[in-house]
Design brief:
Strand order of the largest sheet: 8-7-9-6-10-11-12
CATH topology of the largest domain: UDP-N-acetylmuramoyl-L-alanine:D-glutamate ligase
Structural class: alpha/beta
CATH class of the largest domain: Alpha Beta
Number of strands: 21
Radius of gyration: 22 Å
Distance between the termini: 53 Å
CATH superfamily of the largest domain: Mur-like, catalytic domain
Oligomer: single chain
Helix content: 25-40%
CATH architecture of the largest domain: 3-Layer(aba) Sandwich
Length: about 475
Amino acid sequence: MTENTIPQTTAAAAAESPGAVYFVGAGGIGMSALVRYFLHAGYTVGGYDRTETPLTRALVEEGALIHYTDSVSLIPQACLDPTRTLVVYTPAIPDSHSELQYFRTHGFDIQKRAQVLGTLTRRMRGLCVAGTHGKTTTTSMAAHLLHQSHVGCNAFLGGITKNYGTNYLIKPQSADPATDCVVIEADEFDRSFHHLRPYATVVTATDADHLDIYGTEEAYLESFAHYTSLIQPGGYLIQHTGLKMQARPRQGVTVWSYSRNAGDFHAEHERIGGGRILFDLVSPLGHIADIELGVPVSINIENGIAAIALAQIAGATPDEIRQAMRTFAGVERRFDFKLRDDRHVFLSDYAHHPEEIRHSVESIREVFTGRRITGIFQPHLYTRTRDFYREFAEALSGLDDLILLDIYPARELPIPGVTSDIIRRELRPSMPCRMARKEELPAIVEGEDFDVLMLIGAGDADDYCPQLTQIIQAK
């Protein structure tokens, strides 16, 4: 796909430049990156989303025609010609959606978001990051490393980068015109990443998740194994050490391992203290000394190693990598420090899987040694809570204190007997824990003086961060 060509599976007339693209679920973090791609390419872009958010308002300001009621009558006229309109949808949209039904019965070319991204990886060098956790930060790091280098890249990210304030990066005009890298977050939900054809990919973790889709851990692992078979010949697989997945790369694919302390790519001579983290990188593509993390939490050592591996494969130089790692400001809701001083630390983290939470808590404890860490946790999805409540309790037991909120349902209906209380009952004995509603958070934070406060989860409790930050600052 080029900057001015709709995917060629569209009806023939749609390949005439430019046409229209309509997004069913335009405000999703992954979908909105594609909205921005097509806006930048000059298409008329329309879309539906259930809720108006700061992100959808930003898309409207950038030129997208978005509405918030499921009604065929609200679809822009420019998006109603099936010969010139591509329809992109997210699997989170139910089949009963009337607009989606209209497009399906009126001859439109309809593709999942991942299919469109797959087209990109067939026509450009796709640098992809897959895994149960760590992929958004690692993808954003890799994109920043290349965007700040002579290589340049386009990037489709699963979060809003603090460096750029967006989830879509356009290759800088100053970059080498001979390079054609696109950095993509490879999502395993609904097996979406099977549409990609990576040139190089990182696999960060394969801890079972989305069992409402996969059913069993074995099916989940098989999905990742199949993904590794899609790497282009002559490409690269960089996988975390110790994964349960049995990779199946094709002949001619180079396979390397990485982790914090072992593997083909790993760190040595770590220096942690005074709010800073530095390390030296051991790499088969050339060692790099004195790498400093812009977001100094220890889990970012591994994320950084994986991102650097992709950047080295693409051709970034050691000096470019050092500079970009130091200036990487992070991703919203990923170790997102709202306040940090000698008296108070307040951050938000998107961790919503037990292993993510465990890594988050361990990383914060390593940086803030000896301080009392309180977590606010909002479980995400009834099915995930049902499947992993014991593991959640074990991970959360690494905190000193816990405020446990109600489950955020997202796309799901309640499941009888599945509440946050089943997590509470499995916490370590004598673990301080109180149950609360998200609406009570301002009063709770107002009434107590916390040391290190972490808001954990992928739900909507993060909406309270500005208010909570103000309350803590006032103290």
